[in-house]
């Protein structure tokens, strides 16, 4: 069964060798058919995932402790240890020596982190804050360090995407937000339209001016030709 204790509420119990203090259980689930070996809290404290001796993940809802709401099979051996990665993902250590990445709701296996050569995996812990390693212990009495930067990188990418989307919505990274009223937007669009019209007008004026210049140049050329012909005729009659 799954039992929850409130460590703030304790009771003095009389022991054979004197007084002792112990916490009383607050809630307790029904007896489960399978043995519960490890526990992890996810989904912002709304869900509790338990690894079982039959290789299943039993998923409880907080404040509904009578029985699990969902169960996810798939591990070939017992799930002896579990480590929370984020609100949707956990690392599981199984009796077959495999360390797996499991997503909860929707339930699916995301991949493998490491293999311990068939030795049952007993414990997993993250390294110091800022490190991208997980330490594991199994039955061969060896402490192994695994690189899990792929998990940390995915979280950083999600945060960067959120920052980029907030920046696009008008949020400056260094401070407050930019507020643009609807009237300002209309004024901005109107000014842009006016500037576009002025540019088109100037382009049309330039094209008209260039057309007039070409006509003037043609007229000058024709006038020069006529003047040159008249001069030759006069010269001819003068020679006679």
TrEMBL record:
The segments labelled Disordered in the record are 154-225
- InterPro entries, A to Z: WD40/YVTN_repeat-like_dom_sf, WD40_repeat_dom_sf, WDR55/POC1
| Keyword Repeat belongs to the record | yes
TM region(s), chain numbering: none
UniProt KW keywords: Repeat, WD repeat
Does the keyword section mention Nuclease? Answer: no
Q: Where is the composition biased (Acidic residues)?
A: 154-171, 196-210
Similarity section: Belongs to the WD repeat WDR55 family.
Which PANTHER family does this UniProt record tie to the protein?
Answer: WD REPEAT-CONTAINING PROTEIN 55
Per its record, how is this protein called by name? Uncharacterized protein
